[in-house]
Write a structure and sequence with these properties.
single chain; 528 residues; alpha/beta; Rossmann fold; GMP Synthetase, Chain A, domain 3; 3 domains; 7-stranded mixed β-sheet; 5-stranded parallel β-sheet; 14 helices; 20% strand; binds xanthosine-5'-monophosphate; glutamine amidotransferase; Class_I_gatase-like; ligase
Length: 528
């Protein structure tokens, strides 16, 4: 497996102090047109300098700087001469480390808070209103700014709510500019990057595509490459990107396990292939998968069977391609494309290796011992960036805009045994829900909406002049930033009514539609 850095671009580095803010900050930085990466706070000044950063942002953290075991950062980082912005805990850490004072005043500020900004011509707060609503979450306060720093903002509880040392290009804010509840948060991040650090807004999908194409060509040379298409966004975009780089050296493989949503196979085989020109092999494995799933109700067992059969099908294609290469004297098949995204890289320790991709997100769970080197052109990217690149590459919107969908597919959205008949019921219900949500313009509002068939539950209903004994369908619309936590989406009643009416009218075996109104935690997004 080759080690790679994420891109050749010099990054703005977000130092992660351990709360959940670092990824959000990294995304906001990219929204400002500047490439960003995340490093743990345990990185030394030397390691940070080695990444050649154009700016540093110290994230918030869970704790007080006085707490035992509070996260630390090598103080030499402040001597690197790199423009730095401290946020919340990062701001307090900066204040304390550079000789200011952080006090335990007992005055806490949580949630929406009024910030007062006496002068709105500073680099950091230029163009900001003098009074604004910001999002706070802190116990301690910076009570005195370090020498050489100007105080830029206060709140009723905090004498020093933002500061700057223009000479050293060091800045800090007590509030969280990365959250949308801070009224002018993004403008602060942009001021820091563009005015403070003097960085242009030049990170965009065109650059990413051009750079990745060059890297892919360099990595694979003349060898052949295969890619497993799942129908999902990540594999669709990574495959298209690799195809753009090396054309028919790439073969894409699509395993139809019968657990797909309505129309998905056709979208991949027809629309995707037409728009990208990819050479595609579809493996029709519906009977095999359903045969192995017969009588199985336990979700973990289902997952294992689906994963195992996926690998078998894929390995068969691999063997065929290797044989074909031998027979025709073609170049050997040496590489495998994976749609690993940046959050996977960060969550698995941020290492350059990829051995520890979460198997959860590794569709079908390809095993480590496949004899391939990985090509991972999306390793530096967040989901929204992947979508932007997919659109740029001309992948149909129906694929690029698709909601997250689990690798084991509808297999885990049928509670009970998976059979062809039940899959047909769920496919119809799911298609109706998706169609109505799209029609109502709600695709941007919801993160995903699993539609679940409670196949082992039946209840009495009445239709026409007869009693029915049908299954319930569960709608599980959720809003989320990253699927780690989620809330149930408050869909308009008329949309819910429309979906419910259509499903019960058009899908004969369903006589109830119910709505899941649980957040995650305590529930998960998927039912299984
Ligand atoms: P849960 O149900 O754990 O789901 O809250 C979190 C997110 O992960 C998706 N999910 C999967 N994605 N393979 C995948 O590629 C899987 O096996 C899998 N299981 C759950 C789920 O749809 C949600 O977005």
């Amino acid at each position: 497996m080759t080690e790679q850095t994420e891109t050749q671009q010099r990054p703005a580095l977000v130092v992660d102090f351990g709360a959940q803010y670092a990824q959000l900050i990294a995304r906001r930085v990219r929204e400002a047109g500047v490439y960003s990466e995340i490093v743990p706070h345990t990185a030394t000044a030397e390691e940070i300098a080695a990444k050649n950063p154009v700016a540093l942002i110290l994230s918030g953290g869970p704790s007080s700087v006085y707490e035992e075991g509070a996260p630390q950062l090598d103080p030499a980082v402040f001597e690197l001469g790199v423009p730095t912005l401290g946020i919340c805990y990062g701001f307090q850490y900066m204040a304390q480390t550079l000789g200011g004072e952080v006090a335990h005043t007992g005055l806490r500020e949580y949630g929406a808070t009024d910030a007062h900004i006496p002068a709105t011509d500073s680099t950091l707060l230029a163009g900001q209103p003098a009074e604004q609503n910001v999002w706070m979450s802190h116990g301690d306060q910076v009570s005195r700014a370090p020498e050489g720093f100007d105080v830029l903002a206060t709140t009723d509880a905090t004498k020093v709510a933002a500061f700057a040392n223009e000479g050293r290009k060091l800045y800090g804010v007590q509030w969280h500019p990365e959250v949308k509840h801070s009224d002018h948060g993004q403008a602060i991040i942009e001021n820091f990057l563009h005015r403070g650090a003097g960085l242009p807004a030049d990170w965009n999908s065109d650059n990413v595509i051009a750079e990745q194409i060059e890297r892919i060509r360099e990595q694979v040379g003349d060898a052949r490459v295969i890619s497993a298409l799942s129908g999902g966004v990540d594999s669709a975009v990574s495959t298209a990107l690799v195809h753009k780089a090396i054309g028919d050296q790439l073969t894409a493989v699509f395993v139809d396990h019968g657990l797909l949503r309505k129309g998905e196979r056709e979208q991949v085989e027809k629309d995707y292939v037409e728009s990208t020109g990819v050479r595609l092999i579809t493996v029709d494995a519906v009977d095999t998968f359903l045969g192995h799933l017969e009588g199985v109700t336990d979700p973990e067992t289902k997952r294992k069977i689906i994963g195992r059969e996926f690998i078998r099908a894929f390995e068969q294609v691999q063997r065929d391609l290797v044989e074909e290469a031998k027979a025709t004297g073609g170049a050997p098949v040496k590489f495998l494309v994976q749609g690993t995204l940046y959050p996977d890289v960060v969550e698995s320790g941020g290492g350059a290796g990829t051995a520890n991709i979460k198997s959860h997100h590794n569709v079908g769970g390809l095993p480590d011992d496949l004899d391939f080197e990985l090509v991972e052109p999306l390793r530096a990217l967040f989901k929204d960036e992947v979508r932007a690149i997919g659109r740029e590459l001309g992948i149909p919107e129906a694929i690029v805009g698709r909601q997250p969908f689990p690798g084991p597919g509808l297999g885990i959205r049928i509670i009970g045994e998976v059979t062809l008949e039940r899959l047909e019921i769920l496919r119809e219900a799911d298609a109706i829900a998706r169609e109505e949500l799209t029609k109502a313009g709600l695709d941007e509002t919801i993160w995903q909406c699993p539609v679940v068939l409670l196949a082992d539950v039946r209840s009495v209903g009445v239709q026409g002049d007869g009693r029915t004994y049908g299954h319930p369908i569960v709608l599980r619309p959720v809003s989320s930033e990253d699927a780690m936590t989620a809330d149930w989406t408050r869909l308009p009643y008329d949309v819910l009514a429309k979906i419910s009416n259509r499903i019960t009218n058009e899908v004969r075996e369903v006589n109830r539609v119910v709505l899941d109104v649980t957040s995650k935690p305590p529930a998960t997004i998927e039912w299984e």
